[in-house]
Amino acid sequence: MNKKHYFCKYTKFICNRLMVASYILFFLSANVTNAYATSNPAEVTKSGDIIIKVANKPIKEVLTLIEQQSKFVFVYNTESVNLDKPVTLNITSGSINEIMTQLLKGSSLSYEISDRQILIFRSNQKDSKTSAKMLSSGTVLDENGEALIGVNVQVKGETSGTITDIDGKYSLNVPAGKSLVFSYVGYKRLEMKAQSQMRVEMQSDAELLNEVVVVGYGTMKKSDLTGSVSGVKAKDFNTGLVSSPSQLIQGRVAGVNITNNGGEPGGGVTIRVRGSNSIRSGQDPLYVVDGVPLDASDDLQPSGASTTGIGSTGSKNPLNFLNPDDIESIDILKDASATAIYGARGANGVIMITTKKGSEGQAKVSYSAYASVSELPNEYEVLSADQYRAFASEKGITIDDGGANTNWQDEIFRTALSHNHNLAVSGGGKKGNYRASLSFQDQEGIIKKSGMKKYTGRFYLSQKTFNDKLLFEASLMATRTKDKRAPLGQSGGYEGDLLLTALKVNPTYPIFNEDGTYYQKSQDVRNPVAMIDLTNDNTETDRILANVTGTLDLWKGLKYKMNVAFDETKASRKVTQDKQLIYMSDKGTANINNVEASNFLIENYLTYDFKVKDIHKFNLLAGHSYQKFRNYWYGFSETGFDIDNIDYLYDLSFGKNTDITGTSNITVNELQSFFGRVNYNLLDKYLLTANFRVDGSTKFGENNKYGFFPSAAFAWRMSEEQFIKSLNVFDNLKLRLSWGITGNQEIPNKISQIKLGSTDGAVLDGGTTVTQGVTLTRTPNPDLKWERTEQINIGFDFAILKNRLSGTFDFFSKTTKDVLLQVYSISPAPTTQVWSNVPDMKIVNNGFEVGLNGVIIDTKDWRWNAGVNFSSITNKVKNLPMSSITTGNPSGPGITGFSSQIIKSGYPIGTFWGYNFLGFDENGKSIYEKDADGKVVEKCIGNAQPDFSLNFNTSVAWKNFDVSLYFNSVVGNDIYNNLANVIDNLSMFSKGSNTTVHATQTNEAFNNVLDYSNRYIEDGSYLRLSSATLGYTVPLKNKRYISNLRFTLTGNNLFVITGYSGYDPEVNSNRTSNGVPALGIGWTNYPMARSYSLGVSIDF
C-alpha cells in the first residue's frame, strides 16, 4: 500500500566506530517514507498519492484501488447502490474530492466524506445517511469503560465496515436484521445484533495478551513451551522510584532471588536464578537485550581509587544504561531446556529484556514523570551525647568531652529529592513502525553528596520492503550516567569509612573548630562531615548499544535472519581527597581510573516453520554466532598536593612525585558458536523440544576450546485430552519434563595462560649489583574447560474456573560438575597451585517453585487480582578436594584475619563458621562453647542462604481508582552484622568510641577481648511492603487531544518487619576473598531508603 509518509529527522551523534550503523539507520529512516501514512486520513491528499489507471473497469474495482492506496473506507448499501458501471480513468494527481468527482461523473451516485469514511449513495435520495436501511452508531469501550480506538466494526457476511475514531465512536449503514462483528487485537471477538444506538463493551483476552514469551532467538506461545520460562510484562512491573530494570521484577518471579547490595542510586544487585552454582566462577545470569548478549564479566565501571582507610566501593548495576520506561517485557529462562540455546553462558539462567517498539496507527506521544522524596527509614541506635556522658559517669570513665551535642547520623544523611521525565513518540503503518524516546533521571541519595543523573535516548525503526519479503529493524540506544558516590566502602577497618565513622565517633565532638576549620581529633578519629565535604568521587559513563537486523522470507515458512550489534562503554572515575583531611598523611590524593569496553556481535541463522496435515507442526532453528569482547582498564594516581585552592585533577603534576603512578590492563575474549533447535508439536497435545549449542571460547585451554551443550524437553497438554475435558474442571493442564547441560564461562581472565613475575633479586657473579630475575607465578593449564551444570526439571501448568485461577509448579535438580578451583600442584611443579577442573567435586541445588495468580472479582466497577510466588532451594557442596575454602573477611577489633564463611563438603555455600557465644562470665568476659577437653570449638553457626522466599501482590480497582500492594519476604537466612561487631560492644568505649544502647545494658567488661562468633549472627528473615500505589485514571469525555491521563502516588519500602538490628536486612555485596564471593555480611552498605513518589502519565 503506497501512502503519504513522514519521518522525524534526528541528529547524527554516533562516534566513528559506529559509522556503519549510522549509514544503515540513515538508509532505513529514508526508506520509511515508503511506509507511513499521514496522521490525518481525512486530510485532502496531494499530488501523486493516489494513481488510478483503468480502462472499462467497474466502479467497485476503482474503489478497491483507492482503499489500497489510502486509509479511506467506502460505505454503501449494496441493494440501492449499483457499482458495476464501467469507467475509464487516468489519474496521476489530484485530491480525493477530484478523484471521486471524476469517478462518479455521469452516474446516478454521489458521495460524502466523513473522517476516514466515504459514503456513496444515490443522488436522488435527500438524506445520504438514511440511504441504507439503518444507520447504526455507537461507542466501543474496554472493560474499564475507556474508549477503544481503531476497533474494526464489520457487517457480518459483508465487506462493508468501519473503524472507531479517537473517541471510540463509529457510524455505519447496516441492512435490517444484520449483525455487527467487533474485533480488536488483544480483545475477544464480539458479535451483536445491529441497533441504531449501541454501547459496546469488549473484554480483553488475557490468554491472547500473554500467550507470547521471549526465548533465545525467537518467541513462543506459552501453550507451546516445554521449558521453565517466567515472564513479566510492563503492566506488572514494580513501580515507584526505579532506576534499573532489575528493580522492576524484584520478587515477581519464583526461583529468582534479587538482593540489593545497598540503597545507593544505581547500586549493584546480586541475582541468583535457582541457587548458587559455582565457587570461583561468575554466578550472575546472562543478560540479553533485544537479542544482544551483554558482557557478564564485569559491571563495566572503573575500579576507583584505593581510598585511604575507606576500602573498596561497591559495584554499580550493569543494567543502569537502560531506561526502565523503554522496557516492554522481561522474561527469565530458568531450566536447561530454555537456557541451553546459550550454551556456555546459560548455567546461571538467562534474563531476556525486550524494549518497546512502535505499532500501526497514528503517531502517539506519551509523557510520564514523577517526583520523589526519600529518607532514611530508621537510624542506628547509638548513644546520644547526653547518654554518652551519663554512661561514662556511671561507670567512672573519664571521657574526652568536646562540649558539643552532635548527632553524626543527622549530619551525613538527608531528605533526598528526585525527579524523572520520559517522553516517547511512536507510530507506524503496515510496512513498518518507529518509536523514539528521551529520558532524564535525577536521583539524589540519602547520604549527602551522593546521587545519580542519567540521560537516555533510544530510537527504533522497522521497515518492510521487496514485497514484504525483507524486514529491516534497527535500534540505537545512548546513555550518559553521572554518579556521585559517598566515601563509603564495603569495609573500613577500625578507622572506618563514612558510615562506620558516623556511628562510632564521640558524639560530644563538634563539627567545626572556632576558626571554622573542621574538628579532627587525630588521624585515627575522623570527622564524618569533613569526609563528605573534602572527598569527591565522580564517575561519568557513556554507553551506546546499536543493533541492526534483517529478516528475509526465503520460501514458505523459511526465513533467514542476520543480527549485527555493537555495544561500547567509556567510563571515567575521578576521586580526590583534600589535604585538609589529617588522616591523609600524603597531603591529599588524586586518582583517575578509566575503562573502555566494546562488545561486537554478528549472528546468522535460519528458521523453518511447516506443518503436515495440521497434525505435525515443526519449528526448526540453525545458526552461527561470533562475539568479541575487549575491555581496557587504565588509571593514574598522585599524592602530596601542597598548593591550595586547586583542583587536584586539573594537573596531577602538582603532586609530590616526579613520576605519576599509572596502571593498565587489557583483556580480549572471543566466542564462536553453532546452535540449533527443533520444536515438534503433535496434535497440539504432545510437544518435544531439542536444543544444542557448540561454544568455542578463547578463555579456555588449547585442548578444550569447544564445548557441547545439549537439552531435551517434553510437554503434554493434558487438558486437550478428552478424559480431562470430560471432567469440566481444567481450562489448562500441562505436564513439562526437561533435561539439559549448560556451561559457565565467566572465569577469571587469562587463568589458562602462563604468567611471569619478577623475583626479589640477587647479587650475581660476585659483583655488587642486585639483579632481578623472572619467575613463573602461574602455571598454564591447556586442559582448562567450562564448568558444566546438568539440570532436570518437572513442571505443571494449570488454569481452572474459566482461567480465573492459574499457576505453575516446578521441581528441579541442578548439579554443577568440573568445578573450577585453584588446587595444589603435583610435585615437581614451578608453582604450588594451578587452576584446574575438579572432576569429582559437585555443587548441588535442589528446589521447587510455585506461582499462583487469581482473578477474585471481575465486574463492571470492581476488579480484584492477586498473585503469590514461593520458592525453596537447598544447596550443598560435595567432594571438595581440600579441607575448606575460606572467604568473607569481617573487620573490627579482635577479628582481623578471620574468615566468616568456610566452604566445606556436605555444607551449603555461604555457611558461617565460628565460636558459639554463650554470654558473659561474672567478670564480663565472653564465654564460648567448649568440647570435652575444655577447648573452644569452631562450628557451623549459620547460613546466608534463605530457607524460602514468599512474595505476594494484589490490586483492587473501583471504576477509575486502583490500589496495588506488593510484599516480599525471605525466611531462614542468617546475617553477620559486621557493624554491630564494631559498635555493639564496650571494648572500644573506654578508648573514646561510641556504642549502642543495647551494649550499655549488658555486663560486658570494657577490656573484653572479641573473637569471631555467632554473637553477631542475626536472623535475616523479613517481610517488606515493597511498594504501595494509589492510582486514578481521569475519565476523559473528549479524547481527541488527550487519550489517557493518569496520576499515581507510590510509596516504596514503607515498612519492614524483621529481627535484624542493622539498617536493613537486605544486605549483600560483591566483595570477594581470593575470588570467592561472600554472602550475607552486613558491612557498611549504603542504607536502603524509604521513598514517596507522585507520578503522572499522559498520552496524546
From TrEMBL:
Family annotation (Gene3D superfamilies): Carboxypeptidase-like, regulatory domain, TonB-dependent receptor, beta-barrel domain, TonB-dependent receptor, plug domain
Location of the protein in the cell: Cell outer membrane
Source taxon at top rank: Bacteria
Signal sequence range: 1-37
Keywords tagged on the record: Cell outer membrane, Ion transport, Iron, Iron transport, Membrane, Signal, TonB box, Transmembrane, Transmembrane beta strand, Transport
Membrane topology, from the record: Multi-pass membrane protein
Species this chain originates from: Bacteroides graminisolvens
A GO BP annotation: iron ion transport
Gene Ontology terms: cellular component: cell outer membrane
Pfam families (UniProt xref): CarbopepD_reg_2 (PF13715), Plug (PF07715), STN (PF07660), TonB_dep_Rec_b-barrel (PF00593)
Family: Belongs to the TonB-dependent receptor family.
Domain Secretin/TonB short N-terminal: 72-123
UniProt feature coiled coil, ranges: none
Annotated region described as Disordered, given as residue ranges: 298-317
Biased composition annotated in UniProt, kind: Low complexity: 303-315
The protein's name in its UniProt record: SusC/RagA family TonB-linked outer membrane protein
